[in-house]
Amino acid sequence: FDRVYTPVGYNSHPSGVECVEITEHMTCMIGNAIKYLWRAGLKPGADHDEDLRKAVWCIERERSRLKKIGLKK
What we know:
By secondary structure, this protein is mostly helical. Helix content is 58%, strand content 0%. The protein has 4 helices and no strands. Helix 3 packs antiparallel against helix 4.
């Protein structure tokens, strides 16, 4: 694996699909949340729970953004 072009955490999902193929069609924060969920526990030395908490943070950030621009009550 190449750490820049094919990093282990993004390419080792059991589906064989690369995470970027999905997330490039999303907003930044939702895409980041999906990446954290996608690679949770797959990246060498990664803390599974930490990745899940990072995903939640990204989702909450997106919810805040939507509220700020009036798309969420």
